[in-house]
Amino acid sequence: MSQYSIAVLAGDGIGPEIMQEADKVLSAVAERFGITLNRKAFPVGGYAIDNHGEALPATTLVGCEQADAILFGSIGGPKWDTLPLEQRPERAALLTLRSHFDLFSNLRPARIYPGLESLSPLREDIAKSGVDVLVVRELTSGIYFGQPKGREGQGDEEFAFDTMRYSRREIQRIAVAAFEAAQKRKGKVTSVDKANVLMTSRLWREVTEAVANDYPDVSLEHIYIDNATMQVMKNPAQFDVLLCSNLFGDIISDECAMMTGSMGLLPSASMNEDGFGLFEPAGGSAPDIAGQGIANPIAQILSAAMMLRYSLNQTAPADAIEQAVIATLEAGVVTAELLPASEQHRAASTSEVGDEVVRQL
Amino acid sequence: MSQYSIAVLAGDGIGPEIMQEADKVLSAVAERFGITLNRKAFPVGGYAIDNHGEALPATTLVGCEQADAILFGSIGGPKWDTLPLEQRPERAALLTLRSHFDLFSNLRPARIYPGLESLSPLREDIAKSGVDVLVVRELTSGIYFGQPKGREGQGDEEFAFDTMRYSRREIQRIAVAAFEAAQKRKGKVTSVDKANVLMTSRLWREVTEAVANDYPDVSLEHIYIDNATMQVMKNPAQFDVLLCSNLFGDIISDECAMMTGSMGLLPSASMNEDGFGLFEPAGGSAPDIAGQGIANPIAQILSAAMMLRYSLNQTAPADAIEQAVIATLEAGVVTAELLPASEQHRAASTSEVGDEVVRQL
Ligand SMILES: CC(C)[C@H](C(=O)O)[C@@H](O)C(=O)O
Ligand SMILES: CC(C)[C@H](C(=O)O)[C@@H](O)C(=O)O
């Protein structure tokens, strides 16, 4: 019997509540498919700062190292925003995990589900045009990690600096991830850069073009980041896979998430070359609605499905979860933010949504 | 009598056609307000490459130096896209002009005009919520110009790098520009950064907070660039002035422009500390529609109005042009892209729009 161990890092804000629902769903698929999913919880983020003095305690890191995958909730909140940059949850935990495990390949799907078009901030005809984008974002290099990074000088001439840096190898492996993904989708990669200004973008373009030669069945286009933010708004259905550097991917993936109008439905995967990964919802920790039982657990549940698919190679359970989620949406068992004002009375709670996904399984 | 000299750089694509209409309008206001606007045309961009061997010939630069302001059309096109980065129109002409004249302060207004809401790619209720944003973008520093910038190494480990760099002084002067602008508008500055990742953004935040102390009547908020691209889509009416670094301003100003759905209406100003400036439409050179007499000249005409207002201190003629443009829009004398499919037959040509603005003056 297949056995896996999963490090569960629920974190802050709505993290713990939505993680509980993903946990229910994992128990249900484990039973149905006869696999063992050993889950072990570890502290992370603001919660870990408050209880263990740092955002990523050593025990948590070791727990992750011993696991086959990390299921991550969400971290951060106003309480920890005044800490020095290096100690804050986002940097100290999330960026450290990404870099420690070399999780260079970040997949962020964004689609507008049929029936949920009216949630999109886009004009109806655009929202209904069949939007289904996968942002493939490089996650362990670029201006996030490039050295040198610092501050120098005095008075008015004091200056700060960050380095955007990409090697051929780094670009190559993320480009390969994008082309592989496109092969299983609509066969189109749009690479986002700023090659009219940045040297890193020039190299990015060169390498993606070289990689494209190995994928004759996938088309490649290039688009400037400024134009990309426009096109995502004007005609998002033109895109299949958007291949981005770390910073541009941060920006574009959030724009794509918002375009769906249903952030609470969007999962993400961050993986390394061995298939080990961290799986987390696209939305944040939403401290404003935490603890009220109204947060949407679907993004967390779909993150668990991505984990099964990509890190554990368990395709059937992953498919089953995704189908159960679609059935849950179709049955109208959804949290308040997915409903129009006139239908708020029939909003389901966080745990009711989780229960329904389990029932649909 | 007030006398000014203006360097006119029409450039490529639709540049020359729309410039011709701005020229008509300038002649008309000059006569009406009794000012002399001496205009002198200079080659720039792809046109200059083809005819003079470089995108910014020395005579053009000298012509700009001798003028009180630069009225710029648009440059670039597929024909020159394969040139090395340093020789391409955008970099060799536009970025060189910005840096040569220290045009650090870039103002990019974006509003959704009443009656034109249906052009916006945003949902109707959002498009009608009263969108009127001014992006204030730093234009001569940041990752566009930071050193070192280059390429090193061999094989797979070859890498490229760009430097994002900001000094206190550079941040201060653009922050002042944003607060000054906000004082004349709704009194709200939203500063866009990525302070959870970038050292330059940390300094950016510090300096804008210090500058804010001098403007007690203006409020200051900070937003991360990824969240900003989401908020511009979800609720653009919340913004008044968006203060951005060079790269983030490039991205956000284009998103704001697209959000209006009427790029052909948007002017921009790029100024230095002496009030000298370059004024150009927000849209590009649109080679696909060039030479057909269908391009919208309004953005170029409004750029001329900004020039009168900001560089020449001629408020009354600037107001008059802006009012004439509004009257022209209200009269429905507009180019095809502003009309729904069913009304394309009544589209005005480029020169008909220019003539109407002159008539309304
Ligand atoms: C929290 C922050 C550092 C992070 C990032 O910029 O990568 C977040 O925005 C994300 O996209 O996961
Ligand atoms: C052409 C390009 C270099 C330029 C920029 O990025 O600044 C353009 O996009 C702009 O915004 O004026």
TrEMBL record, chains A, B:
Substrate binds at R98, R108, R137, D226. Residues 344-361 are annotated as: Disordered. One of its GO terms (molecular function) is 3-isopropylmalate dehydrogenase activity. GO terms for biological process: L-leucine biosynthetic process. The record marks Y144, K194 as: Important for catalysis. NAD(+) binds at residues 77-90, 284-296. InterPro entries: IsoCit/isopropylmalate_DH_CS, IsoPropMal-DH-like_dom, Isopropylmalate_DH. It catalyses: (2R,3S)-3-isopropylmalate + NAD(+) = 4-methyl-2-oxopentanoate + CO2 + NADH. Residues 5-357 form the Isopropylmalate dehydrogenase-like domain. Catalyzes the oxidation of 3-carboxy-2-hydroxy-4-methylpentanoate (3-isopropylmalate) to 3-carboxy-4-methyl-2-oxopentanoate. The product decarboxylates to 4-methyl-2 oxopentanoate. Belongs to the isocitrate and isopropylmalate dehydrogenases family. LeuB type 1 subfamily. NCBIfam families: leuB. Homodimer. This is 3-isopropylmalate dehydrogenase. It comes from Alteromonas halophila.
